[in-house]
Amino acid sequence: MIMKKYAIATLILLSACTPRLGKTSVDKLVDAMTVEEKVRTVVGTFTDIATPPPVAPGVKNRADYPGSGENTVVSRNQVPGAAGDGYAVPRLGIPAVVYADGPAGVRIDPRRDGDEATYFCTAFPSGTLLASSWDPEAVEQVGEAIGDEAHRYGVDILLAPGMNLQRNPLTGRNFEYYSEDPLVAGITAASYIKGVQSQGVGTSVKHFAANNQELYRNGINEIISERALRELYFRGFELAVKEAQPWTVMSSYNKINGVYASEDRWLLTDILRNEWGFDGFVMSDWFGADDPVEQMKAGNDLLMPGTPYQIEELLEAVKSGALPMDVLDTNVKRILQIVAKTPRAQGIVYKNDPDLEAHAAVSRRIAAEGMVLLHNDGVLPLKTGGKVALFGNFGYDTQPGGSGSGYVNRAYKVTLDKGLEDAGFQLVAPLAEAYRNHISAEKALLPEEYFWVVPTASEKKVSIDEVRAAARETDLAVVTIGRMSGEGGDLSAAEGDYFLSAEEKQLLKDVRSNFKKVVVVLNTGAPLELTGVAELSDAILLAWLPGQEAGHAITDILSGAVNPSGKLPVSLASHYSDIPSSRNFGVSEGELNVVRYEEDLMVGYRYFTTAGVRPLYPFGFGLSYTTFEYSGFRFDGKDFVLTVKNTGPVPGREVVQIYVEKPALSEGRPVRELCAYGKTDVIDPGSSQEIRIQALRPSIDPLAQWTTEGWKRASGIYRFHAAASSEDLRVSINLTL
Ligand code: BGC
């Protein structure tokens, strides 16, 4: 009896002494780990290699990643379809954390072998649309809904948001990103992160930094001045990291000034951690870079998705002393500190039961908030119940989002034809039937949609007789023009891609000459060159990639059920050649895999306003069905304050932008820059709202400039403009600082 008691007491004592994640300090946990456990902790365990990214010329081709799965200790399919898993050390209570994409919603497989249940997620609008809402609260709600789905489906860390600057309109992943302006990108990302993390799961803000093209993304060497890095390419990340504390950061594939981002100690340790105070861990992008030891030393703590080769290399480096143990220990500690916070570590049982209906409503609401009305001769809003001749494949096969890691396996998508019909519009039936038949016949020959490739039918050719026949039934035509966007490739400055195709132009002309009212709806991830389209139409709605409720949300705007309040987070140039980075996009002339950011700070509106070149639709521009008047602009020592009056016929919301002209501390600076913004509530016709716009941020000083001595504020006179767009300055004040 005494012996038994003694044995039990010893057991209790032993288990109390055994280090456990969450109960023991991470220092002690790391002390208790073997070298192999430490190495495996810094390497993901998902070895199912579907698509290693293409590498740049001259870069070691590692398409032969060993994918044997031999290092997989736990099942790599904890949540089928997730992007990767961490390493578990059960004896220390360390679980294998699940990482899943992505920016527009959780990306996991919707069906599982031998399981009747479905695991669909909500497809929210793409990043650019979220940013076009200029509404941090709405973005936060999207984040909350995505975080909730992640949590309920057993995902610990969401691989989002994507927030690289939209340097050039051809960048293939622009749709996942937010803006050409770092303040808009940073605020949008911070709201998204706060929303997701409020649900108890982590985020991985990506891709740090300057992931601005898909061409040779794995090895492209970007030559960028420190001033442009600090003021543009890092600035949004700085804001998001400081204001929202993402649990993790994902480093980018590319090199910056000769060094891979994931091997860059200056980037990941000196700036991200020491300057900005980031205290989570950094993971590589999938298969990013190729020197695991340098990655560890730089502060890239986790290598994803993980290969046996990386394990071997790291074990070898520890043995030889090339990787000091204290470096590895630091990497492991940073990971464990975050792992301890995950739902999996907390023993939370996930139930796979998100409220998809409620989230669809959130998706629809923000989709309508972020669409941008570019042109309207008064034809919009449409009277419901009317008859519509709907042209263009994208009217019947509307695209909710892009492909690649930003894809979402949603339960359904609402196409525009369906959205119009649901709202009581009638379609010209023979035309609708011809389109539907064409699309289904073509799709029958194409492979099934799958996240990496979303096949779309070739655009139906429309004869002039079809146009005339439709015009006999109604005087209203809606012409959709669309482009799929996706990871893995950029757009090209060619007809049918960034430019309209000859057929699209011809269709617009034919429709214009046969219909009294012509509305163009753009269903694209990134803007196209739209010069001449306004002349051939009465209204243009930039609907972006609006998520699974696309058709309903577009119809909400067309019918006036929602008054548009989205504004452009990017400039739309009249001509591609007007954009300074067009001379250095992809690779710089005569170079193999180098791109020189010669435009420096002259990105987007910073260039257009400074050079006096008029964009077709300026940054910050967007129409409403009502009009607004600004007055009483002042700075109260803390906030910008002004009165916005609705001077038009219907209730609406207005995005007010504050631009600053700073005394310049160096050459080649933009004349004005966005320094704050706000969005009113819904204001009734004839009513006013006094809006307060946060002038000083806790994270960055929008008035500072990067100089050779670091951030500096110039002293002198600053001119502030309250504006409806970067080209529409309404009221201004001077302040001496
Ligand atoms: C993308 C990341 C993504 C990862 C995991 C990579 O190809 O660049 O954005 O999170 O895959 O799917």
CATH topology of the largest domain: TIM Barrel
The CATH architecture of the largest domain would be: Alpha-Beta Barrel
State the separation between the terminal residues, measured CA to CA: 82 Å
Major sheet summary line: 6 strands, mixed
Give the count of structural domains: 3
- The CATH homologous superfamily of the largest domain corresponds to Glycoside hydrolase, family 3, N-terminal domain
> Cα-atom Rg, whole angstroms?
26 Å
Query: What is the number of E strands?
Result: 27
SS field, number of helical segments: 20
Note poorly predicted spans: 61-75
Residues in helices, as a percent range: 25-40%
Approximately what portion of the residues adopt beta-strand conformation?
Answer: 15-25%
Fold topology:
Layout: H1 2-17, H2 26-31, H3 35-41, E1 84-85, E2 98-100, E3 111-112, E4 115-118, H4 127-132, H5 136-152, E5 157-158, H6 182-197, E6 202-208, E7 221-223, H7 226-233, H8 235-244, E8 248-251, E9 255-256, E10 259-260, H9 265-275, E11 281-283, H10 292-298, H11 308-320, H12 325-339, H13 356-370, E12 372-376, E13 387-391, H14 393-396, H15 416-422, E14 426-427, H16 429-445, H17 464-473, E15 476-482, H18 502-514, E16 517-523, E17 539-542, H19 550-558, E18 594-596, H20 605-611, E19 628-635, E20 639-646, E21 655-661, E22 673-679, E23 688-694, E24 705-707, E25 710-712, E26 717-725, E27 728-736
Parallel strand pairs: 2-5, 5-6, 6-8, 7-9, 7-18, 8-11, 13-14, 13-15, 15-16, 16-17
Antiparallel strand pairs: 1-2, 3-4, 9-10, 12-17, 19-20, 20-23, 21-22, 21-26, 24-25, 26-27
Helix pairs in contact: 3-11, 5-6, 5-13, 6-8, 13-19, 15-19, 17-18
This protein binds beta-D-glucopyranose.
